[in-house]
Give the backbone structure.
Amino acid sequence: MQPGQSVLVIGAAGGVGSLTVQIAKAEGAKVTAVSSASKEDLVRSLGADDVIDYTREDFTGGARRWDVIIDTAGRRPLSRLRRALTPKGTLVIVGGDGGGRWTGGFFRGMLRAPMVSLFVGQRLRGLATKIKRQDLLALVELVEAGTVTPVIDRTYPLIEVPDAIRYLEEGHSRGKVVITV
Ligand SMILES: NC(=O)c1ccc[n+]([C@@H]2O[C@H](COP(=O)([O-])OP(=O)(O)OC[C@H]3O[C@@H](n4cnc5c(N)ncnc54)[C@H](OP(=O)(O)O)[C@@H]3O)[C@@H](O)[C@H]2O)c1
């Protein structure tokens, strides 16, 4: 992300999204958060400049476009996401696909997006997290400086992991779910 770029974070109140909003702001981006209305206060408190309630507004109509879209929620076809992207914009598909018939949605992010990307001006990518020491240290610096504050929704002891997973599967958490040992 470059300072001044417009960034749309879909699923902005979730575990990944709540960190993404804050990191994008730290990078100097102008951030639009997509969340349900009940989480508007949360995403604004994380620094979002603008909030779209996806239950009321379809932001993929083409009326507004963003330089970078980070999709943590899935559920929207690539063609619609591309419509909300500037001609040279970047789409990062993080997750949330769930239901592809054969591949559980893997196809859209990991195969289809990079393939389509070869033929259009936009950069379309699926994200596969690689945990690197250097990145974690950079994150620690942001947390220690108070620039990024992890949002903790619920905490479960190890023995209640199945409950934690069931809660996560509902797909509407507010920040992170933490397991304690
Ligand atoms: N690619 C990778 O390496 C990688 C790494 C980590 C996670 N993931 C994947 O990324 C996804 C997100 O993870 P997470 O931990 O952030 O999940 P999460 O905490 O459950 O957050 C998901 C968010 O999506 C929002 N949402 C649900 N339906 C939506 C819709 N129709 N439109 C827009 N937003 C909607 C929810 O907000 P509301 O409650 O406001 O609806 C919720 O805050 C998961 O599928 C996870 O498996 C991928």
Summary: The chain has two domains: 6-126, 151-181. The first strand starts at residue 6 and ends at 10. The helical segments are 15-26, 40-45, 78-83, 106-117, 133-144, 161-169. The chain has a mean pLDDT of 92.
